[in-house]
Amino acid sequence: MLILVINCGSSSAKYELFDVEKETTPCRGIVERIGEDFSVLKHETAGKDRIRKEVACPDHQTAIEIIKDVLTDEGGGVLSDVSEVKGVGHRVVHGGEEFNESVRINDAVLESVEKFSELAPLHNPPSLEGIRGCMKIFEGVPQVAVFDTAFHQSMSKEVFCYGIPYGFYEKYGIRKYGFHGTSHRYVSEKAAELLGRPLEELNAITVHLGNGCSIAAVAGGKSVDTSMGFTPLEGLLMGTRSGDIDPAVVTFLMQREGLSVEEMNDLLNKKSGLLGVSGVSNDMRDILKAIAGGNERAKLAYDIFEYRIKKYIGSYAAVLGKVDAVVFTAGIGENMPQLKDSLERQLRPLLGSETKFLIIGTNEELLIAKDTYGIVKGT
Ligand code: ADP
User: Fold this and answer.
1) Cα end-to-end distance, the chain, whole Å
2) Looking at the chain, which residues constitute the CATH 3.30.420.40 domain(s)?
3) Does ligand 1 come within 6 angstroms of the Cβ of 210?
4) Measured in angstroms, how far is the CA atom of residue 28 from the centroid of ligand 1?
5) Which pTM value belongs to this model?
6) Cα separation of 355 and 348, whole Å?
7) Is 69 a catalytic residue?
């Protein structure tokens, strides 16, 4: 059964076609620079040359049309008709408190995704556009939403509530939600599989280190705590995000530097993290090169990055009591065994000899495809 997975970011739309039963991916690609003067389609079909071409793509609905065209292209498309797609799975960043699992999309779900745009203004609106585009183009095909927040809905109240007046939780939904849920879920399930242990009995700490970074404590397949919060800004040091910071720094800087709300938001989300501390780059590969060249600020950025991860793993060890596995994933986590080894050396005395340190490649798209398949099959 063919399932199409769509992942709309603020200026891109990634897609991947899965044959879930055969566990193959006939093709995948991305439409980039959506809304800019010229956009780019990159498309890969198993066993064929890659395609890269400029396209006109003012919005995400148009991106879906472009994706449909390349999938059904007479020359090289893998589909002869869109009806061969039996389900479309969408990554949706924010599902608020309404969704603790993936759901088939109907009007009520669309309304909720729209409502939570207030909490994820950069992420939910493009997803909505993508969903609307697919509902038109893949008419009648079940559409499924897979939320980044859903996996963390199992956190208990003392974990997700902030120490601010309770009324703001009720009024605005201000609480920890957590993100990257699909990745944390995928790698914790994979860890159980690899270790030959029932998921229900496994305590894992999953460390997702990409451009955005987050860490989760997972007990018996359920998230009990995670480092990202009300927004993805909280927690670890990231490519361009500050992660944890004394909130008083925010008001201080706004006053002293005369920064607007938007400028401050930009500073913390886009100009901080590895980039802000090093002054070099948000990209870990550049940071590593700069360190090799003797750049002290790059070294400091790296040291903060690693220290925070250690601190979070230590605190999640306290939360879980016993840790069976610490799992590293995503761009940095998967490509830097030296980081895993260093943390393993430092944490071994705390965690004990039983804890396995693993690197597992994440595959959020595959999990989205599987969830979609599960829902479609049951309809
Ligand atoms: P995204 O969050 O955008 O999906 P990725 O998971 O692709 O990001 O991770 C991007 C990060 O992974 C970047 O900081 C990049 O430098 C880092 N990365 C990729 N390959 C390597 C590598 N070989 N060594 C160190 N870092 C790497």
Assistant:
1) 14
2) 2-147, 197-359
3) yes
4) 19
5) 0.95
6) 8
7) no
**From the CA of 177, how far away is ligand 1's center (Å)?**
24
Instruction: Specify the ligand 1 atom closest to the Cα of 274.
Output: 14
How many beta carbons lie within 10 A of that of residue 41, not counting itself? 20
275 lines ligand 1 (CB under 6 A): no
Active-site residue, from 148, 225, 324, 371? 148
CATH number for 197-359 (one of 3.50.50.60, 2.102.10.10, 3.30.420.40, 3.40.50.1820): it is 3.30.420.40
Q: Look at residue 88 and give its three-state secondary structure.
A: strand
* C-alpha 1 to ligand 1 mean position (Å): 32
Identify the band that residue 378 occupies on the pLDDT scale cut at 50, 70 and 90: confident
Residue 284, ligand 1, Cβ within 6 A:
yes
Three-state secondary structure of 220-257: CCEEEEECCCCCCCCCCCCCCCCCCCCHHHHHHHHHHH
* Angstrom distances, CA of residue 15 to CA of 72, 112, 371: 14, 23, 16
Q: Is the dihedral of CA 248, 249, 250, 256 positive or negative?
A: positive
CATH number belonging to domain 2-147 = 3.30.420.40
11 φ/ψ angles, rounded to the nearest 5 degrees? -130, 20
pLDDT, tens digit (0-9, with 9 covering 90-100), for 93-124: 999 999 999 999 999 999 999 999 988 888 99
* Atom of ligand 1 at shortest range from CA of 330: 6
